[in-house]
Amino acid sequence: MSLLTVGTVAFDAIETPFGKTDKIVGGAATYIAWSASYFSKKVNLVSVIGDDFDMNELELLKKRGVDTSGIEIKKGKKSFFWSGKYHLDMNTRDTLATELNVLLEFNPVVPEAYINSDILLLGNIDPSLQLKVINQMQEKPKLIVLDTMNFWMTAPFLGALKEVIGKVDVLTINDAEARELSNEYSLVKAAKKILAMGPKYLVIKKGEHGALLFHENEVFFAPALPLEDVFDPTGAGDTFAGGFCGYLDKTRDISFDNMKRAIIYGSAMASFCVEKFGTERLKTLSYPEIEDRVKDFIDLVQFDIVLED
Amino acid sequence: MSLLTVGTVAFDAIETPFGKTDKIVGGAATYIAWSASYFSKKVNLVSVIGDDFDMNELELLKKRGVDTSGIEIKKGKKSFFWSGKYHLDMNTRDTLATELNVLLEFNPVVPEAYINSDILLLGNIDPSLQLKVINQMQEKPKLIVLDTMNFWMTAPFLGALKEVIGKVDVLTINDAEARELSNEYSLVKAAKKILAMGPKYLVIKKGEHGALLFHENEVFFAPALPLEDVFDPTGAGDTFAGGFCGYLDKTRDISFDNMKRAIIYGSAMASFCVEKFGTERLKTLSYPEIEDRVKDFIDLVQFDIVLED
After folding, report:
1. What interface predicted TM-score (ipTM) does this complex get?
2. What is the SS3 assignment for A203?
């Protein structure tokens, strides 16, 4: 099959309790593409960058089989830049700088070669742009997965966000966002309300506490791997989404049971992502390493109980 | 086998976002005994109460097969009383009143009939009292499980607490307490330091985020069941410990693999506990209901992945 993702390709500068970086390559679509490239044979990428971008980084993605021809390069313009500093608990961060640059005039165009992609993964970006991408697909993809964040859950974006949510099959957000979107504290109640907005599946990401997958009246829980250190959480959610969709694409199976597996693979990819700054760790992976990590997840939750009745 | 527990049998007054109670029966050993009674044929209880206590409550425990002859009744004295109010997130609470009463002069005496108990579960109480109980056992029990809390992790109690920790097989604490005791933020690093203090097993309880079991270089994760509402979290940790030890006692198996199962049963018991105020829900359970709940846990985390290599 094939996977199309749209999202930011950008520069980040990151500070964590373990160190800090100069400008390094980041952006949701970058993490998604790296992660998905270990599973999907055909990853298509729609994004926008300035001509200040490090073109060697695109070459590395191309070598992984990612089609980067959908990345628009704006001459004389600067790429999107984000800078942030994480607190000790790694669950909270301060944004130090946000320079939208090329994002201000981003008008995503899906190349002819991409419009039949089987899976569409909408990375976290303005929901009105996500809508534009959906509308350019020739026919409805087999699966549309939406990642978003709390920033779009307020005026003037909420209307467009709800419209996108109504058009997708899977929504992935974190626990705080699920509470904000639904106005319910209980995640079970939140999930019911959000599923009623349209998506058939809801993934609630809880960071170091794992992830929940809701579908109709069923729920599946995937743990996060307990790690000695979380070095840099930037991109973990995008990496998760990329692994999740990449695995579904590779296995050509979008059933609930296969989504459970996909969540474990996505979680495994995220556990690699946080081990080093930026996309560094994702660049050096091998499939056997990924399988070993998935084995750690299996061992982590495996128990055998034979019920008496 | 047989299970001996020592801890408080007391009155609580509880306020949650869902309502409030007058004085109801609580205390760590009460929750432990109710929970363990569904598994263990012989639950022995050492505690102290005043003659203001509701003796019908002891009769109910006796009917469940709990041996309450180790509960000292102090004439003319009042039972321990605690009152607290939970915040909306149910993870934090304010203590409104703590009246130690009979606890001030509690000097636990283990009856002759209890000194050969196979499993000793030390409920959360002053560590110097926990030490006194250990020293009264005729021979070292097959398993000693220690529950404690952050209050005992400061002067002048920390010395005695570390002495108890050095004598037990299993320690159960929550994530914040593990961090405080070890001075490590990473739970993996915290677990290593705490296991080096003596216990062979460490259970880190994370409330709505589940529980981790550490043993040597292995780790097991048990989820918490996503619930529509947590009505009253009081006693959930004690109920977990009671179910955990009760299951080990019933199955006569203290291996790591069986501890995994015991954690699932303990988590199932805790998930019932929080559904109603106090011990109310624990009083009306049946074993088939417990098995059904354990089935929910199995379904929650079950996935089948066949690795390629």
Report:
1. 0.92
2. strand
